[in-house]
């Protein structure tokens, strides 16, 4: 009996230990009161020590720095012509434009052992003289192999062999929060290294910054002189080419931008092969789909790209039958989500390729085959419209209009020789808020064509209870749609 008691005590003791262990585990999981106890995940790798992290930066710098170069450029510019005021005798030769030398500095990265260097177009693209200094102190004269203003990239070359060069990484694999290193010559201080993280990826800064570039944003310090230098990941790969900063002082404010390496690699290959980048071209001016614009053209979707106008009558889009107001929803079998995405897809398509196009016109889905042209590099400004005398119409849009006469249409070289010309825009009215300005020509109000002032007044008077209206206007020889919000 005594033995049985001891056995029972022993078993109870074991049961109690198991219960206690389970209770302790539960307490650790749920926390005691307001204090939660962190339990390490045995499958999670331990964080590196500060010494290990520092050693990683050191090793990456040692690996990449030999391929980073300092670029000094000289450009010949011309002074502005000067003349003596009227009434003074003009002296022969006075004020003649004389060339002068303008110097600048930037950075670059060697990406082949035979001396090809990737940098920014704004660093070396217009230079008359390019001097390259390597990390080992050697200096070379360089020449421009090719440049691309659309992406602000350029390739230059020095005559040397067996050079240290950097590897281009896959920028599509970058993640927000990833450590990166910027190398270059800020303010001419060669071989400077700064570090930070990837603040954002796929940053669209508008067409003025780059029509085809979705930038990498970083808080790694980038300053004047860093342009053209590499942005490096922790594997020692070039994932970007530092290009610009956002700053109100001209120095680093922790917001810098780099051109992704995958885009740089594509441009580099084209410049090496042809000295230029060839892109596909439709010949249309695109606008995003807004709810008001979609209703005005009979489209029920929210994605796509609206054809605001055709660049010319002999463009690929014109030959394929596209016209203003069409909403492109599919290109080459791929869904179109925005004007920028469509522009990028077209640019990446080989020139001359016959490509399928799907679009919506007046609520109906139509298809066409279009053969792409080559995207031009320059655009010319058309004559601006002249202003007519104000003619009040008291419309709810906050603007005044007058008829487009044949003489006015000829002088303005209008695409559509009819409509009404805006003569005055009321401050703080719907037209002003929508960006309309005197000289704009109105061709359509919602779906109603406007050929004269009577058409315009009739269309405006029909806007009873409408909160929005979409106008088709012509400005500077280009058609576009503008949506106004009515009070």
Layout: helices, strands, pairs:
Elements: H1 2-30, H2 50-64, E1 68-78, E2 99-110, E3 116-120, H3 121-124, E4 129-133, E5 139-148, E6 153-158, E7 167-168, E8 179-184, E9 192-203, E10 215-218, E11 230-232, E12 237-245, E13 256-260, H4 261-274, E14 280-281, E15 284-287, H5 291-296, E16 305-310, H6 316-319, E17 327-331, E18 334-335, H7 339-347, E19 354-361, E20 364-371, E21 373-374, E22 399-403, H8 406-412, E23 420-425, H9 430-433, E24 441-445, E25 448-449, H10 453-461, E26 468-475, E27 478-485
Q: Helix share of residues? A: 10-25%
In DSSP terms, counting alpha (H) and pi (I) runs of 4 or more, how many helices? 10
Mean pLDDT: 81
> From the alpha-carbon coordinates, what is the Rg to the nearest angstrom?
32 Å
Shape verdict: elongated
Q: Report how far the terminal alpha carbons are from each other.
A: 97 Å
Sheet with the most strands, sense and barrel status: 6 strands, antiparallel, barrel
Low-confidence stretches: 1-15, 18-40, 78-98, 379-394
Strand content: 25-35%
Helix- and strand-based class?
alpha+beta
């Amino acid at each position: 009996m005594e033995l049985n008691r001891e056995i029972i005590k022993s078993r109870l003791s074991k049961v109690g230990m198991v219960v206690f262990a389970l209770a302790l585990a539960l307490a650790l999981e749920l926390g005691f009161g307001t204090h939660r106890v962190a339990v390490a995940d045995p499958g999670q790798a331990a964080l590196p020590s500060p010494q290990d992290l520092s050693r990683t930066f050191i090793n990456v710098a040692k690996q990449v720095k030999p391929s980073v170069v300092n670029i000094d450029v000289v450009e010949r510019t011309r002074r502005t012509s000067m003349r003596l005021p009227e009434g003074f005798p003009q002296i022969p030769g006075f004020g003649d434009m004389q060339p002068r030398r303008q110097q600048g500095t930037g950075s670059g990265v060697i990406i082949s052992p035979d001396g090809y260097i990737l940098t920014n177009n704004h660093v070396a693209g217009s230079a008359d003289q390019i001097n390259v200094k390597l990390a080992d102190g050697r200096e070379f004269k360089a020449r421009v192999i090719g440049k691309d203003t659309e992406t602000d990239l350029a390739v230059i070359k020095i005559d040397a062999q067996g050079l240290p060069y950097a590897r281009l990484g896959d920028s599509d694999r970058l993640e927000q929060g990833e450590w990166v290193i910027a190398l270059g010559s800020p303010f001419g201080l060669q071989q400077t290294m700064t570090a930070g993280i990837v603040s954002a990826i796929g940053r669209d800064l508008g067409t003025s910054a780059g029509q085809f570039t979705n930038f990498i944003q970083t808080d790694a310090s980038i300053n004047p002189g860093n342009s053209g230098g590499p942005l490096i990941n922790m594997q020692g790969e070039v994932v970007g080419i530092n290009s610009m900063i956002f700053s109100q002082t001209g120095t680093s404010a922790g917001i810098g931008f780099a051109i992704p390496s995958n885009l740089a690699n594509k441009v580099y290959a084209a410049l090496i092969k042809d000295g230029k980048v060839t892109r596909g071209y439709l010949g249309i001016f695109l606008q995003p789909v807004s709810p008001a614009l979609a209703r005005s053209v009979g489209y029920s979707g929210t994605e796509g790209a609206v054809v605001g106008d055709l660049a010319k009558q002999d463009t690929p889009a014109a030959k394929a039958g596209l016209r203003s107001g069409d909403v492109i929803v599919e290109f080459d079998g791929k869904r179109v989500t925005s004007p920028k995405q469509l522009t990028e897809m077209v640019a990446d398509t080989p020139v001359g390729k016959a490509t399928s196009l799907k679009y919506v016109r007046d609520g109906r889905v139509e298809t066409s085959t279009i053969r792409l042209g080559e995207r031009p590099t320059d655009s010319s400004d058309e004559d601006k419209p002249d202003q007519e005398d104000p003619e009040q119409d008291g419309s709810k849009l906050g603007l005044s209009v007058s008829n487009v006469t044949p003489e006015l249409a000829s002088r303005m070289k209008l695409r559509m020789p009819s409509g009404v010309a805006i003569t005055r825009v009321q401050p703080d009215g719907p037209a002003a808020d929508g960006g309309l300005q005197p000289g704009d020509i109105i061709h359509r109000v919602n779906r109603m064509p406007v050929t004269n002032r009577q058409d315009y007044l009739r269309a405006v008077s029909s806007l009873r209870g409408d909160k929005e209206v979409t106008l088709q206007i012509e400005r500077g020889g280009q058609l576009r749609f503008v949506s106004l919000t009515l009070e």
